[in-house]
Amino acid sequence: MQKELLLEKLQSVEKLAAASKIARLSADPFKYLGAILHRQLVFPLQKKSWQTKSKTFWGEEMILLLPSSTDIYLTGGKSHDSEIRLAKFLIHQLRPGDTFVDIGTHYGYFTLLALEIVGASGKVFSLEASPVNFSILEKNTRNRKNVQAINAVISNSEGMATFYEFPNLYSEYNTLDVSQFRHEEWFKKNPPNEKQLSCVKMDSFFQKNEVEPDVIKIDVEGAEFMVLQGMIEALYQQSLTIVLEFLSEKRGNESHLKALELLLQYGYKPFSIGQNGGLQSLENVSDHLKSKGLDSDNIVFQKGF
Fold first, then answer.
1. How far apart (Å, rounded) are the C-alpha atoms in residues 62 and 52?
2. What span, in angstroms and rounded, lies between the C-alpha atoms of 183 and 192?
3. Cis peptide preceding 67, ω within 30 of 0
4. What digits encode the pLDDT tens for the residues 73-124?
5. How many other CB atoms are there within 10 angstroms of residue 21's CB atom?
6. Helix locations, the chain, DSSP H
């Protein structure tokens, strides 16, 4: 699908995201009521996920586990402003034949979007640690020849690590480090399961699979610094484009600040993503979050600018 058409279709997600509850209800009453009733009544009582299918804004069918990703189910895309801007950036940045690496994939929304953009001549490597999330990711990607889905923790060393997997509603917070959530009320009521999972270093992965990424997205809820420590050679030898979810100070961003320092050390400069998907140079990432009143934002890092 042409980029202009993708951007045009993405406007439907943006429009619904900004609309009132009544407007979202009117768009599809059956889907809206079903999703909200499950999220607010069924899941809190039974703690059972609802596997369903929905169309993305570009028309591809995607399997989801509700209540997580309710926004994709109702709007066709991730509806947070930062995620909409990230989608616009990827549409602008990626080209047919490119290689996209998605670290912290969840159910595969950005993986599937990247596949739509890079086409049959491109490649996508989709890495997800959570066994539950990976089972859905695998279903969403199993019939695609140019995507490789990997179930592993991405870190700075090989071996095993303790991974924390939350109930479905909070599954996008699955992480190696739960310290950032311990003060949250939802965390006390929804403790994670601890699992011992195998770890992968990205430098080893890139070398083994002969991967030369064009864009890498990293969304790993506090393990960003460890991920980057495991790809030092790639940072040094290549001029990568890296998208990093960056948290504000009140969310506990020590790992993100360390990741920022490491990237700066290797010549990468930070950029915010504008409303049109273009990049704007940043002097200070933390100041950017404060000035916009954001708890988090997707920050792009590029080398040599």
1. 8
2. 14
3. yes
4. 999 999 999 999 999 999 999 999 999 999 999 999 999 999 999 999 999 9
5. 9
6. 3-18, 21-27, 29-37, 43-46, 70-75, 81-93, 109-118, 131-141, 185-189, 202-209, 224-229, 232-237, 254-265, 285-292
